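hey team, just a heads up i'm posting the complex here instead of the shared drive bc the drive is being weird again. everything in one block, sequence lines first with there labels, then the predicted structure for the whole assembly after. its three chains so it's a bit long, scroll down
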Amino acid sequence: MSSGSGRRIFNIAAGDVRITLKERSIMIWAFLMPLAFMFFFGVSFGGGSGGVPKATITIENRDSGFLSRDLIEALRCENLYLVDSLGEGENPVRTLIIPEGFTRDILSREKAELVLSKEKNSNFDAGQAASMAVFRGLAKVCSGLLEIEIEEVQRGDKRFIIQSDSVSGSLWSLSGGRPQRVIEYGTRIDTILAREPLITLKDEFAGKGKEIPGGFQSSVPGSLVMFVLMGMVFSGTAIVAERTSGVLKRIAVSPAGKMEIVTGKLLGRMVIAGVQIVFLLIAGRFLFGITLGNSYIGLIFLMVAFAFCTGSFALLFGSLFSDPDQVTGFAVLTSLAMSSLGGCWWPLEVVSKPFRIIAFCLPTGWAINGLHKIISFGYGLSSIIQHISVLIIFGSIFLVIASKKLKITM
Amino acid sequence: MIEVSEIRKTFGSVKAVDGINFHVKKGEIYGLLGPNGAGKTTTISMISGLLKPDSGSITVAGIDIGGKSGQIRKRLGVIPQEIALYDELSGRENLHFWGSLYGLSGKKLREAADRMLELVNLTERANDNVRDYSGGMKRRVNLCAGLIHDPDLILLDEPTLGIDPQARASILKIIRDEATSGKTVIYTTHYLEEAENLCDRIAIIDRGTIHAEGTLRELTELAGEEDVVTLTGNFKSGVTKEILSGLRIDHLEDGMVRFYVSERETIGMVLNKFFNSGVSIENVSIKEPSLESVFLRITGYELRD
Amino acid sequence: MKNPIAIFLMMLVPLIMTLLVGLVFGGQSEQKLPVIKVLFVDNDGGIISGFLKNGMQQDTLAKMIDLKIVDADAGKKLMEDGKASALIEIPENFSRDFFDRKPVEIRLVKNPSETFLPVIVEEMVKTMVVLLDRAAFVFAGPLDMARVLFDSGRWPTGDEIKKILEDSKNGITLAGGYFSGSLITFKTETVSDPTDGKRDVEFNIFAFVIPGSMIFGLLFISEITLRDLVRERGAGTLQRILVAPLRGVHVVTGKVMVTFCITAVTCIIILVISAIGFGVNIGRPLPLIVHFIGVILMCTGLMSFFYGFINSERTADAVMSVVIIIMALFGGSLIPFEQLNDTLQAIGRFSPVYWAGDGFKQIFLMNAGLADIAMHLVIVYSIAVATLLPGGILLEKKLGRGD
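-- predicted structure starts here --
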């Protein structure tokens, strides 16, 4: 390639970049809307709390006994926002109603009903997590009480014994309802619950990532891939517009040859995609607190391959269509299909196997998976060689077809 | 400067250009006059290297464009029919972009763009986006984008399409000046008066073929056209008919007659006859044959703007 | 209609979105997730780890979890390759330490690229750990006896087993009350659900998705149709119309009516395709029609109102899509409303899209009647009235000024 040729390629690319960056709507679509999507999808995937949105539970404690207090204490150890019903306005999202006489009923071994009341349309995942947390809290409190019950039954007091596999009496009957005794149970159960657990769970993430991935860790790659793809596909419409307006023809009668035009157009798009990717990754890191992994080299190579692939795809779009309305329509539908099936809209883990396979038939699927290898697992370049290769192969195929099909005139 | 020999181009079953030959000398403005679909744009596209002729050859300054089109393109300035500009960029940015494709850069590029903007009186609006320009302003920038690199051969494909007379006059003046400074110009148009007023030589092109070529005079002569003479005075139609016997009369009434002459000397003889018969002539009008009539005569139909 | 292709495409968008979601999640119930792939590394090989392992392969858990027993190296490799959602690793001597009541630690390795499934596994394992931990204290006596037997290195005699069982008996009997639900019940209920959670119709994923995406598409269609006003103003054709004996109010009324009609026709087409193509139960006719009219009026009104502030097509390009998408994001068109967190849901209730979409959802999924969606109707019609009239006036003023 001569220096003149290189300069022309650069000039064509620079022209495209300048035009793109001058468009207000492109700025909004390339930079602001992805942030909105990252935020919304990230929050709905659990935000920064590692998967599930931290549930808010309003406690409506109608009981005055120690068991309800112990239950609330146990819930404080869970990943929940606890709100006192007295401090809450009307229509709380989720309310745990501890019934009146809860402690006495349990001590008397009489039936008590705890109700977790949820507002219609309240977040399902948070609701599930809240239910599990309440269940664990109850398990802790009840098991503590059970220890005391076993001890008391073993004393053989007739007011609380087991006869022919059935329980007769209760701690309440043992206490005779005397507050002193009841307080004593409360103290004992506090001691039990204060014990360090024997079995603990240590949770960690696979790979070399040092930070805890949250909802944004999924939404940032998803939105990034979707909006870079969308931007690129829509930039294909610019090629159709240039053909319609005669700009492409004018470039073609300049000393720039067809390969220079194709390369320049590709390079311009790659630069735009690059700027967009860098902006969104920086926003992801500093605005949404995601980790970018341990290998910037790997990340750069992967994103360059993705930019090449989508840039070539844009050229293919611009080459295959001649009607601007038509190309816009197909751009919308193609972006929707490729981003949803590739895993930009929802995590691929929740879809059935055939759709996971389909995801890997698309560049979007490879790009997202590669991004996760780098930023979620914390791996290096070697782990994504296959991803980079596939993206380059996709891009090369698109580019070859685009070069052959590209018409300069209408 | 440019030699076009027997070029042909077919699109499917349509013969867009069917054996066109012409040559244009340095500093000459050569007009291709014809209706839409005559093959003008296809011819320009082949000269500019955009289309490859099916057969025939085109040489510019002795170099065959088929072999070294890149080398020749640098010397070409193409002004297309469309407003082929970036709407999103300003006039100046557009000129910078198009100039850069022809190897201009830095100070040279900036100076060339400024010179062009001044030439078309757009310096004040240079930094406005082209989308905010009027049609005439866009046409002027469109012209500048093809001239910014100071080309030797300028190809203009209907550059004044749909603009106001003032902008048209400005564009035509620039083209004339370019030719005066030694640039070779090929100019396609379907405006008869533009061809008449601007071009040194005109080729009448229709259905992919050049039907006639030459200066305006040559074309009229070639077509056997006659001058139109209109006389007014105090004569009766009967006398006039007698005097004008042997000449083709277009219109005759008492006091006015319009007739055709193929040679100017005939007019003097006719006037003598009127004087000799005691008729006084108040006004004599001689109209040379127009391109319009020539076009009609050659192609068999009128060329309308 | 200046841009029929654009309108056609905007009609296709909600259908394609619904089709994609329906295809991907088709056949699944509302909240069903795929079977979760979990790896189990048992470095202990003892009775307690076996108990955990077996527990996860039985009944309900077995339907949720595809448990694969692997060794530590294979597990690590599979997790690093992202082939499973989580790995549970039981340490060496886990059972012995459990009996000795020494602190033990179960390791859970989660797939960092997955969002939901590892969290579900974590919640389950957390619960199992709590239960096991508490059991270690509740059944401390029998477990001590069992430990002695293990240490002796011989098979226990029948008497020894009987003694352990007898000692456990009290605990089991007492605990039974808690487990059977005869002592404590914990129930979850949904408030302000008009149908009290009871559906007359079978859940259809398309019916769940289509309302939100349809409103999204309808807003865009109203926007595209009204855009002609700005486009014509830019091209000068509007000025030409206005020099004819027509007043601005006529032009605006005409354009708003056209927008209403096109949006309505599009909505009808989407509803028909939803019913016939996607098998969506479109509910009872009366609430459907009343809500439908309200929604179309609301879409037309909102867009007329916004266009009252728009001067050029370029501004429309930059602003209108953003406004619609923001309303759609908050209103649950693009992400199910149930998926938004509490704060966003609270804000989302101020989005017209929420009330329009949720109204259709109630009609499709709950077979809701007019009374059930009264609140939706009040809000949708109020927005329509509050925007249509001012929107029309603003547009007319713009024409009058020749902006």
